[in-house]
Each structure stands twice: as structure tokens, then as C-alpha cells.
Amino acid sequence: MRRREVLLAPGQICSHYYFVERGALRIFNLNAKGEENTRYFAFAGSFGTALPSLIEQVPATEYVEAIEESDLLVIDRNDFYRLVETLPPFAFIYRRILELSFVQAQERIYGFQGLSALEKVQWVQRRLPGLLTRVSNKLAASYLGVTPATLSRLKVRL
Fold first, then answer.
1. In Å, what is the CA distance from 9 to each residue of 4, 23, 50, 127?
2. CA 90, 74, 106, 112: dihedral to nearest 10 degrees?
3. Which of 27, 86, 95, 98 has its CA 20 to 30 A from that of 45?
4. What is the spatial distance between Cα 98 and Cα 94, in angstroms, rounded to a whole number?
């Protein structure tokens, strides 16, 4: 995949699961003001997709984008679920992916509640080491829910 290549856009129905061998994906949406809100980064060795759309087969509300030149393993939804149903080790892996995704989402939701902008940056440094140096301030800020200018000021204080 090329850098900035969009694999899925809002309104499309997700039909693929992606495993990142090299590079990175970002899953994000746009709010009513047109501002980007990043939900998830998938780096080498991790999975990424628009899970609600993939599971429910409803139009996606988010983008899946390669933020770096990336090598991905891509599996079609039907093939993916066929493996889940017929191979117990694959079903175990899928369950672990769902469990870890749920835990990460909960940690971020509850971890960010009541935190100052600086505490959010420190939280990301602990939970996702290297994120702040690997992605642009714009992308990191969209994950943290702060402006790029605020993130730049905060990084100086770390």
C-alpha cells in the first residue's frame, strides 16, 4: 500500500481484515466540523479494520488509511469467518484480537476521562511508546483529542 492510500471510506461496507507486516494503518473519522478523530493505529505485527462495518456489514463510519508505505496481509471477510468456524486455533486468535481490542478501547476511554492534555500525552507515552515520534503531530493530536499546536507545546515539557 502506498502512503496515504485509503483502504475504506465512510459509506463503504468493509469486507477485509488487514494484518500489518510493515508500515502502519490509521482508523479515523471526521467530526461535524471536518476535524479528524483517530481511533486506532495498527503498526507492524497488528491487525486493523473497521470492525463494526466488517462484523455487521453496515456502511462504515470511518476511514482505514495507510499512513506509511505498508505491506499488508489482506483476508476477505468470508474467508476470515470460514477460518474462524473451521479452525479452532484461528478462532482462538480471533477471540484474542477482540478481547485485546476491547481492553485497549476501554483503557483509552476511561484512561482519558478527567485527564489534562499533558496527562493524556504521558498516558500515550506509557501505553504506546514511540507513537509520538513515529506519527506526525497532526495524527497524534487527533488521537489525543488536542490540537497539533497544543501537542507541540506539551512535547517540549516532557
1. 12, 19, 10, 28
2. 160
3. 86
4. 6
Task: Kindly report the pTM of this predicted structure.
Answer: 0.89
Residues 20, 48: contact at Cβ < 8 Å? yes
110-126 pLDDT per residue, tens:
878 888 899 999 989 98
**CB–CB of 155/118 below 8 Å?**
no
Residue for cell digits 507513537?
131
How buried is residue 144: exposed, middle or buried, by Cβ count under 10 Å (0-12/13-18/19+)? buried
Q: How far apart (Å, rounded) are the C-alpha atoms in residues 44 and 135?
A: 14
pLDDT, one tens digit per residue, over 48-78 is: 999 999 999 999 999 999 999 999 999 999 9
